[in-house]
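N-acetyltransferase
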Amino acid sequence: MTETPILSGHAAWAALATPPPGIAFAREEGRLDPAGFTAVVRASGLGRPVDDPARMAAMLAGANLVVTARDAAGRLAGVARSVTDFAYCCTLSDLCVDPEFQGRGIGRALIAETKRIVGPGCMLLLLSAPEPMTWYPKLGLERVANGFIIRRDG
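Predicted structure tokens:
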């Protein structure tokens, strides 16, 4: 199996920040409906506290970069929710695409759009759930091992 090369540099990622046909991207921080966000997270299978509406709403309210993908009818197809200083670091906390829309390149394009927005001086960190750990390298993301964590209590 051929390993996908790491896609490096802001310009390389920014060039991929184009939504697939029939999909539009928008920044929706402060405007995305928490119920809609929760529905996409739940449908995607991303392990988040989807049965705790107050916590999901707080997660969304605390994010200062929320990029959405919507189809022509306005249906929410995917979300990239991040916390960033727009200068040095960005943590892409949630990347989810509704299964109905998966396989069209929306996830990769949402990552690229997030990177485009934060700019060339800002690194983008994505902590993966176990299952997609093999997916991200196929997109050209670099695997890192130099991190530490203090886990949440719930």
